[in-house]
Amino acid sequence: MNRIKKLVNMAIALGASEAEVYGSVGRNVTVETQHGDIGFAEESMSEGLGIRVIADGAIGYSSSNDPAKYEEAVRAAIACARSRGKDPNLKGLPHPRPYRNVYGIYDREVDEIKLDRCMDIAAGMVEEAKKDRAASVTFGKFSSIVSETMIVNSNGVEVEDKETMVYGYIDVIIKEGDNVSTAFEYDVSRALNLDFSTIGSKASGLARRSLNAEPVESHVTDVLLGPYAFADIIESTLLFSVNSESVQKGRSGLAEKIGQKIAAEGLTIIDDGLLESGLGSSRSDDEGTPSQETVIVNDGILESFLYDNYTAGKENRESTGNGIRNSYTMTPKVGPRNIRFEYPRCDVINETDKGIYVNSIIGAHTANPITGDFSVECRNAFTVEGGALGRPIKSMMISGNIFDLLSRVDGMSREEKVIGAIISPTVKIKGMRITPGA
């Protein structure tokens, strides 16, 4: 922290009107399996700083992972700013505001985990998957991450957070005669409070259940989007549309719809940077703005977009605490923290007499983020008959528009799964058209 403060002071002394240093120190343990055997195991450390300055009315940025070159990076950031034209929309860096406590983002057991235990956990996932003797594990991964970030700027912002995360992934294939099916499973947590071995058994179980899939004809029916499927569609459409940068650049279909109904009555969508144990939770965002809870959609009505400090300044409003960076080498960009959904919960499968359940999809990245239109291929889909999963379905397509989809929400499961920045339930959509896949 003292080193960071000195670099901020150095930038001001060299002529920057404002300066910020974002520091990051991390430890990552990764184990990968290939065809059921440990193929890669590594423990790595990282450290680096990103320096952002305002000089002559423009932003400059530089980064380094070499402590001997940190002062050089400060000079490079100032030179970068002075080489650019003045930005009339630039309102400055964040100013200090009170920070609220956030809970459940650090676990000492994860911080102290050793490589050999990570290897045991990865092997356990594979072992459980292979209890189905026909199952082959094509790929597996277990990672443990510890990171500490520090943000200091010349306006008085000083904030520090320490976080942990573990996640596991298994991809399996089952072949029986001419029948082939694949499936994956994934889980993630801030703490070692999950039984990661169940990832393997769930993946092989889903692949087993997907064997002997039958074709489906085009028709309109209720569709139950599992957590993976729903999160993928939301990420590729809605989250782009509520990003203030998209709105300000004319790339969002929601630009003029604040205060208008865009989703089903009773549906509320919240971005929560303070969610207990949330993967995107911390005391501040990645530029020092205090984390907060932002209601995006309230009872079906669009209430707010997501802002970082720069996009908020363009509208003379406060940031919503959504300045995100994936690394100290990058400047902040608008991004979600923890997207969660409020809607009456139920057992959506048990309460569906007839429909289709979709576990996951591919092709969400091809969605039109401006209009919200999407067309995706469904994987590990099943009929729903009499409140239970029925026959597996061969390749199937669903298409539609995210805003029409949100207006047709007719149920959400009590169970949720963390998929990146989205805490996703299974969501029932009334009356979607399904078509056979290629």
From TrEMBL:
<dbReference type="InterPro" id="IPR002510">
    <property type="entry name" value="Metalloprtase-TldD/E_N"/>
</dbReference>
<dbReference type="InterPro" id="IPR045569">
    <property type="entry name" value="Metalloprtase-TldD/E_C"/>
</dbReference>
<dbReference type="GO" id="GO:0008237">
    <property type="term" value="F:metallopeptidase activity"/>
</dbReference>
<dbReference type="Pfam" id="PF19289">
    <property type="entry name" value="PmbA_TldD_3rd"/>
</dbReference>
<dbReference type="Pfam" id="PF01523">
    <property type="entry name" value="PmbA_TldD_1st"/>
</dbReference>
<dbReference type="InterPro" id="IPR036059">
    <property type="entry name" value="TldD/PmbA_sf"/>
</dbReference>
<dbReference type="InterPro" id="IPR045570">
    <property type="entry name" value="Metalloprtase-TldD/E_cen_dom"/>
</dbReference>
<dbReference type="InterPro" id="IPR035068">
    <property type="entry name" value="TldD/PmbA_N"/>
</dbReference>
<feature type="domain" description="Metalloprotease TldD/E C-terminal">
    <location>
        <begin position="221"/>
        <end position="435"/>
    </location>
</feature>
<dbReference type="Pfam" id="PF19290">
    <property type="entry name" value="PmbA_TldD_2nd"/>
</dbReference>
<dbReference type="InterPro" id="IPR047657">
    <property type="entry name" value="PmbA"/>
</dbReference>
<dbReference type="GO" id="GO:0005829">
    <property type="term" value="C:cytosol"/>
</dbReference>
<feature type="domain" description="Metalloprotease TldD/E N-terminal">
    <location>
        <begin position="19"/>
        <end position="81"/>
    </location>
</feature>
<dbReference type="GO" id="GO:0006508">
    <property type="term" value="P:proteolysis"/>
</dbReference>
<protein>
    <submittedName>
        <fullName>TldD/PmbA family protein</fullName>
    </submittedName>
</protein>
<feature type="domain" description="Metalloprotease TldD/E central">
    <location>
        <begin position="111"/>
        <end position="211"/>
    </location>
</feature>
